[in-house]
Design a protein that fits this description.
Elements lengths: L1 E5 L2 E5 L3 H7 L16 H5 L13 H16 L1 H25 L7 H18 L5 H10 L9 H25 L2 H6 L1 H33 L11 H7 L23 H32 L1 H20 L1
Antiparallel strand pairs: 1-2
Helix pairs in contact: 4-5, 4-6, 5-11, 6-7, 7-9, 9-10, 9-11
Length: about 300
């Protein structure tokens, strides 16, 4: 454990797993109720205590966490997610085959597109063609103008998420004065806020359009299994969630559009970059340690063989 001073803020950096675990205990008796201090910069950037990751209001955090967990615990949702993952990987593999064996792949860019499209599909139940747009950019020498309208909008949306992620540091590290009066930082902050407005408007539109779709769907027709549908229908007559939480009155009301938006935003932000980095690190280390790779292959063969026998 050590501390640093960044932009006038005293930060304590934890390196011990037991200390980090203690800070994440979901209990009112916890000695560490605030896991991440909400600065005025975070508030301006739209991270003002909403959703789960940046929420220090215990009651609100508990409400959002329960519905987030509820959405991903539905068995049919998990089966569907596995099927989507396999289909999407096969699609990406087909693009790699088209590029040829001699084409040098930038794995992190491909995997970020893969994880973004996967989390978008899981979150909303629809494709955003992240992989297809990247492939078309490559074969057209990174020219966005060569993409059709749908692929171009898809590429813009994906880039907005990446920009939003990168911008978190600016609104955490630089205070209000720096963001408004120091020339270079001020210009960067304005661009980041403009990107934030685009991203937030896009997500709110997705939420509202899906709500209208559900309202117009006949009662005798089943609704698709995805996180957004789970959030919208929670505690309503169209509830698709198999897991219920009826022991707490605070969890019995439907979610507002803002609450739904915040959870979808966190899913997309968290499910894109972190997951992509993890996959790439695994690929990197397996490539450098062939004996570990071989043990992994053997374990896959053993487990899959047992599953087939059973």
């Amino acid at each position: 454990m050590y501390e640093i001073i960044l932009a006038g803020q005293r930060l304590i950096i934890l390196c011990r797993p037991d200390l980090i675990e203690n800070m994440n205990i979901p209990s009112k008796k916890s000695k560490y109720p605030n896991r991440l201090h909400n600065t005025e910069g975070f508030a301006e950037y739209g991270l003002d205590g909403i959703g789960v990751a940046f929420n220090n209001d215990l009651k609100s955090w508990k409400y959002n966490r329960q519905f987030f967990s509820q959405a991903i615990m539905t068995p049919s949702f998990n089966y569907q997610a596995i099927e989507w993952t396999n289909d999407l990987w096969n699609e990406m593999d087909s693009y790699w085959n088209k590029l040829g064996d001699d084409y040098e792949l930038d794995l992190i860019k491909w995997i970020r597109r893969f994880t973004n499209e996967m989390i978008f599909k899981i979150s909303t139940g629809t494709k955003n063609d992240a992989i297809a747009s990247y492939y078309n950019m490559l074969i057209n020498n990174n020219n966005n103008n060569s993409l059709n309208e749908n692929l171009n909008e898809s590429n813009k949306f994906i880039e907005s998420i990446e920009t939003y992620l990168a911008g978190m540091f600016y609104f955490f590290a630089f205070n209000k004065f720096s963001r408004n009066y120091i020339p270079f930082i001020r210009g960067k902050a304005k661009k980041l806020l403009k990107n934030k407005d685009y991203l937030f408007d896009k997500l709110y539109t997705i939420v509202k359009e899906r709500r209208i779709e559900i309202e117009n769907t006949p009662l005798d027709q089943p609704l698709r299994q995805d996180m957004l549908t789970s959030f919208i229908t929670a505690n309503t007559s169209r509830d698709i969630n198999a897991v219920k939480h009826v022991d707490d009155a605070d969890l019995l009301r439907p979610m507002t559009d803002k609450e739904i938006f915040s959870n979808i935003l966190e899913a997309m932000v968290g499910g894109t970059d972190s997951t992509a980095n993890f996959i790439c690190f695994v690929a990197y280390y397996l490539g450098h340690y062939p004996e570990v790779k071989q043990r992994l292959i053997q374990e896959f063969d053993r487990v899959l063989e047992n599953m087939m026998l059973n």
